[in-house]
Design goal:
By secondary structure, this protein is an alpha+beta fold. The protein folds into three domains: about 100 residues, no CATH class; about 260 residues, no CATH class; about 100 residues, no CATH class. It is built from 19 helices and eleven strands. Strands 7-8-9-11-10 form a five-stranded antiparallel sheet. A three-stranded antiparallel sheet has the order 1-2-3. A hairpin with a 4-residue loop joins strand 2 and strand 3. Helix 4 crosses helix 7. The longest helix is centred in the middle third of the chain and has 35 residues. The radius of gyration is 22 Å and the shape is globular. Bound molecules: zinc ion.
Length: about 525
């Protein structure tokens, strides 16, 4: 797609970024047009799966159990790493309790570490086929997709380093020259070390999985957003020549990752990259409000929901889900492995709707969503799920009902069960008739939400009150010309007179009513 005409930077986890202008808001915001392509987490079977409706946390358990629990650390930092660690500690406002080992692995050995072996996949085959069936039932993948292969491919392509909170060591892909790209990557991973030493990452992850209202993926977005922020600050303190070199090296890395993942359904990459795409905006809002202390409070506070992907100010807005829907005769419950499995999350709703009905309606429905629950069951040999969702107001719930009525007609085996109170619907695995959504549709959905989220974050950083920032961004993004400009990536740098006037109108509407743009 064409590049925006504003100045260009490369931001880790976000990709290439342009800066766009909003005269009437008196601000600029960042505009993403390059596909995000770098992730740096531990093995993330669980990451993808928890959001995507379920169950595979079991695999995480298998992997964890097989890992070494040895926790020995060196007495001193590797001299090459020491200055980066000192800078990261200063930026993050936390000190290291002890140095950790950094391992530089040849690419093949690294990839082996971040992918599941055939034996691991075999052990988890029941859970994998269940997760695959549920993603097909949600209309997110088609019959031809091998989820295990797709996740393994994305994992190997997108991971360039990770910190393992079990062995307390950093692993970096490639044992080549110690470039500015390696140093910036280490700044990211060293932030994870600080998070773990001060807040205990496995404890936070367990608490997120056990949360009634929060999502493990949303916690990951905070963790990754924080590391991405520190890494960007570290990068911004390098010389201009180093920064230019970093952009060159990063674009090459991103290009390789893109090549390796072009054959994958975009939905896999979307779930894989979501914490890196949406997390930094949330952290940006927190930092603007209260610096590192606000970030610490969010990490250790109640787990947020994936609503933060759509509204970066919503860190404390996770709502109690409606009761898990009841099963009918002949339906047998599949036991969930964590409380997270009983939730039906906002981002999944958004992607499901965006895949099958139009994007503006999907975004409007996601804005209408307050909370959701779900149950996975089998009926004979078929796997199904039933979800209950509630809206932020009666009108919002009615909108969700109409959106779900439209959605169930687009997939083979789904039906709305009830619209009294919560909207309850179910969908079963269509197996061979399942069709993968168009990649462009998924990419556009990700891009629209990401750019709207970035606009909110930018406005908050300009001291616009949160509710007003969220409202203006919502109303503005509902304008077809603004939405098309975001999706086309070419028009917002020099906004048309129409967009300027729409911005002013949005501001007026939202000052009068901060719920403007929501169904009523
Ligand atoms: Zn990370």
């Amino acid at each position: 797609m064409p590049k925006p005409t504003g100045p260009i930077t490369f931001e880790y986890g976000v990709g290439t970024v342009g800066h766009q202008h909003c005269e009437a808001c008196g601000t600029r915001w960042r505009y993403v047009w390059h596909k995000p392509s770098r992730g740096a987490g531990a093995r993330s079977w669980a990451t993808i799966v928890v959001v995507v409706l379920l169950i595979i946390a079991v695999i995480g358990a298998v992997v964890l159990w097989q890992r070494s629990r040895a926790d020995s650390h060196p007495a001193a930092w590797d001299p090459k790493v020491a200055p980066i660690a000192a800078e990261v500690a200063a930026l993050r406002g936390l000190s290291f309790e002890h140095p950790v080992t950094v391992n530089y692995l040849p690419v093949a050995a690294f990839n082996k570490k971040v992918t599941s072996t055939p034996e691991e996949l075999k052990k988890a085959s029941v859970e994998i086929s269940q997760a695959t069936a549920l993603m097909r039932a949600a209309g997110l993948i088609g019959a031809e997709v091998n989820l295990a292969d797709a996740v393994n491919t994305a994992q190997a392509a997108d991971t360039i380093a990770f910190y393992d909170p079990d062995s307390k060591q950093i692993f970096v892909r490639g044992a080549g020259p110690f470039t500015v790209e390696t140093r910036v990557t280490l700044a990211h991973e060293l932030t994870h070390v600080l998070q773990d030493q001060h807040f205990d990452l496995p404890k936070l992850q367990k608490r997120a999985a056990d949360s009634d209202t929060g999502s493990s993926d949303a916690l990951t977005a905070l963790v990754e957003g924080d590391a991405t922020r520190v890494e960007q600050q570290y990068l911004s303190r390098q010389s201009a020549a180093e920064q230019r070199n970093y952009v060159k090296l990063s674009l090459a890395t991103a290009g390789d990752a893109n090549k390796a993942t072009t054959a994958l359904p975009a939905i896999v990459d979307t779930y894989f990259n979501a914490p890196y795409v949406y997390g930094p905006q949330v952290i940006g809002v927190l930092e603007a409000r209260g610096g590192n202390a606000a970030v610490n409070a969010a990490l250790t506070g109640a787990t947020p929901s994936t609503r933060i992907y759509l509204d970066p100010t919503a860190v404390n807005d996770a709502a109690q889900p409606p009761p898990v829907p009841a099963l009918k005769t002949g339906e047998e419950k599949v036991e969930s492995t964590s409380k997270n499995d009983d939730e039906f999350d906002n981002f999944t709703l958004y992607l499901m709707l965006a895949s099958r009905i139009d994007l503006p309606s999907a975004l409007r429905a996601a804005d209408s969503y307050k909370a959701g629950s779900e149950v996975v069951y089998t009926r004979g040999t078929n796997t199904c799920f039933r979800a209950a969702i509630t809206g932020v107001s009666p009108a919002a719930t009615a909108y969700l009902a109409s959106a779900m009525q439209r959605w169930v007609r687009t997939v083979p085996a789904a039906k709305v069960d009830s619209t009294k109170g919560a909207v309850v619907f179910h969908s079963c695995d269509p197996r061979r008739t399942a069709v993968t959504p168009d990649n462009t549709t998924i990419v556009n959905a990700t891009r629209l939400a990401a750019n709207r989220e970035a606009l909110v974050a930018t406005l908050v950083k300009q001291h616009v009150p949160s509710r007003l920032a969220v409202c203006v961004s919502r109303v503005l993004t509902q304008q077809p010309d603004v939405r098309n400009a975001i999706l086309a990536g070419d028009a917002l740098a020099t906004p048309s007179p129409q967009i300027l006037s729409e911005t002013a109108t949005a501001g007026t509407a939202c000052r009068a009513n901060p719920l403007a743009g929501l169904p009523r």
